[in-house]
């Protein structure tokens, strides 16, 4: 197993853990662990809750995603780095887009979107580039 393979496995594991955390999934309680209340201090409802997102460093040599938007849609373009995916899965959670391109060399990316979008994602692959189109969520 080469160095790149080891980092690729760690990157995949961190992406799975991040995706599970955003979806609210938790692992089993470790033996001897104690449950702590999720809010140790009362919170003013007007003060926003700060949430921190761990960004997994993208693969070296691949540019970051291009994100563009118009009145109705958000468009995301990802370089695949010579990959030819056999399947693409995209999942939306709030303003995060999780993209997984399956194939001989899998690709996992987390993209922060400029606004909330609908969960349906349309995608195409052409010339080593993955284009995703998402419809903006209607406000109100």
Question: Top keywords for this entry?
Answer:
140 residues, 4-stranded antiparallel sheet, alpha+beta, Immunoglobulin-like, single chain, 3-stranded antiparallel sheet, globular, 7 strands
Compact summary:
This protein has 140 residues and is an alpha+beta fold. The protein contains 1 helix and 7 strands, in the order αβββββββ.
The CATH class designation is: Mainly Beta
Number of domains: 1
The assigned CATH architecture is Sandwich
DSSP strand count: 7
Portion of residues in helices? 10-25%
Q: What is the makeup of the main sheet?
A: 4 strands, antiparallel
Strand content: 35-45%
Radius of gyration: 18 Å
Shape: globular
End-to-end Cα distance? 51 Å
Biggest sheet strand line-up: 1-2-7-6
Can you tell me about this structure?
The chain has 140 residues and is α+β, with helices and mostly antiparallel strands. The chain has one domain: Immunoglobulin-like. Helix content is 15%, strand content 35%. It contains one helix and seven strands, in the order αβββββββ. The strands form two sheets. It has a four-stranded antiparallel sheet, with no helix packed on it. Strand 3 and strand 4 form a beta hairpin. The longest helix is centred in the N-terminal third of the chain and has 21 residues. It is globular, with a radius of gyration of 18 Å.
């Amino acid at each position: 197993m080469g160095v790149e393979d080891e980092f690729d496995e760690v990157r995949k594991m961190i992406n799975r853990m991040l995706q599970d955390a955003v979806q609210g999934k938790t692992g089993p309680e470790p033996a001897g662990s104690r449950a702590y209340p999720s809010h140790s201090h009362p919170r003013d409802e007007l003060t926003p809750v700060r949430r921190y997102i761990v960004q997994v460093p993208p693969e070296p040599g691949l540019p970051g995603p291009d994100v563009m938007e118009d009145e109705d849609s958000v468009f995301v373009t990802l370089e695949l780095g010579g990959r030819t995916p056999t399947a693409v899965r995209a999942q939306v959670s709030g303003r995060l887009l999780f993209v997984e391109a399956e194939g001989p060399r899998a690709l996992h990316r987390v993209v922060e979107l400029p606004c909330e979008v609908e969960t349906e994602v349309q995608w195409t692959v052409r010339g080593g580039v993955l284009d995703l189109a998402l419809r903006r969520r209607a406000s109100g």
